[in-house]
Write a structure and sequence with these properties.
With about 100 residues, the chain is mostly helical. About 75% of the residues lie in helices and about 0% in strands. It has 2 helices and no strands. Helix 1 runs antiparallel to helix 2. The longest helix is centred in the middle third of the chain and has 39 residues. The protein is elongated, with a radius of gyration of 21 Å.
């Protein structure tokens, strides 16, 4: 596989992760917006949902970050720019 293809796939994975995070953020905003107002029970429920959504978004953000890091490492390794100290390895090739 060429480095161009790997770069494309890494960028695609990053873009897909970002799109998923944006979709989930919008969903959480829509949910919070639909339950705002009303009695104190509704407000408390809204606050709990907001806190739950925040935790979910934090977790999703970490997953997206890890996906992007993995894609970046794959591209670096494919192009021979991997860093052994970051847990990735590169295998030098020699031509005979």
């Amino acid at each position: 596989m060429s480095s161009t293809q790997q770069t494309f796939r890494g960028g695609k994975a990053h873009g897909e992760g970002q799109a998923k995070a944006d979709q989930m953020i919008q969903s959480a905003k829509d949910t919070a917006h639909s339950i705002t107002g009303g009695s104190s029970d509704t407000r408390q429920c809204a606050q709990e949902n907001k806190e739950q959504a925040a935790g979910f978004l934090q977790q999703t953000g970490e997953q997206v970050k890890q996906m992007a890091q993995g894609a970046m490492d794959a591209v670096k390794n494919a192009t021979g720019m991997g860093n052994a100290s970051s847990g990735t390895t590169t295998t030098p090739t020699s031509k005979h």
